[in-house]
Amino acid sequence: MPPAGLHAVAIDFETANEQRTSACSIGVAWIEDGRVVETEEHLIRPREMRFNPFNTAVHGLRAEDVADAPEFPEVWARFGQRLEGRLVLAHNASFDLSVLRHTLTDYGLDWPVCSYLCTVTLSRKAWPHLAAHKLNYLAEFLGIALDHHRAGSDAEACGRIALAAVRALGLEHLGEIAGATGITLGQLAPDGYTPCKGGNPPRRRRLEPVG
């Protein structure tokens, strides 16, 4: 029986270069009643069409692949409101939430109001005996299909890892994680954010400028 409860969404970004404003793909996996019910993947045309060879070697995307894709505001308009108020999951959330914050700020868009959870932090609580907690390692360990660095596949795997961790910890749903593990959920709002932490509650940070 899958864990039931909180509505959540797992996200994954791929970037064109080292800049946090260079998102070129996003994956979104929607979670309802303890299961992944829908997965989306959208190509994004960055403002600066500079693709670092290192990034391309990781995800395989080049400038020509996104030349006809919409820029981020058009992609965000498709699901941004639906994300509001949900628990957002990301594997290495410090990266994916940073891309989201910087890109929204770069386009003058408001940050959503939501809590977020890093599934790397969660997986270390659920499976402390594992030698590594990378997305591909966990997917193999749990038998989750993964086309690594395809944003949609990565987002779906992230969501399935979170649900598997709920079961491994003997919990009923994702909403119980903070109380059961001591993880401090990250918080995102238009006036600032606090990161997800496995230890003591962090101090609130001010909205940072892009650049």
- How far the N terminus sits from the C terminus, by CA atoms, comes to 47 Å
Number of strands: 8
The secondary structure category is alpha+beta
Q: Report the radius of gyration as a whole number of Å.
A: 16 Å
- Indicate the overall shape: globular
Percentage of residues in strands: 15-25%
| N-to-C SSE string, H for helix and E for strand | EEEHHHEHEHHHHEEE
Itemize the secondary structure elements and their pairings:
Layout lengths: L7 E8 L7 E10 L2 E9 L9 H7 L3 H4 L5 H12 L3 E4 L2 H14 L7 E5 H8 L8 H8 L8 H18 L8 H5 L4 E4 L2 E3 L10 E2 L5
Parallel strand pairs: 1-4, 4-5
Antiparallel strand pairs: 1-2, 2-3, 5-6, 6-7, 7-8
Helix pairs in contact: 5-7, 6-7
Word description of this protein:
- This protein is of the alpha+beta class and 211 residues long.
- 36% of the residues lie in helices and 21% in strands.
- It has eight helices and eight strands.
- The protein has helices at 53-59, 63-66, 72-83, 93-106, 119-126, 135-142, 151-168, 177-181, and strands at residues 8-15, 23-32, 35-43, 87-90, 114-118, 186-189, 192-194, 205-206.
Keywords:
211 residues; globular; 8 helices; disordered C terminus
Concise account of the structure shown:
The protein is an alpha+beta fold and 211 residues long.
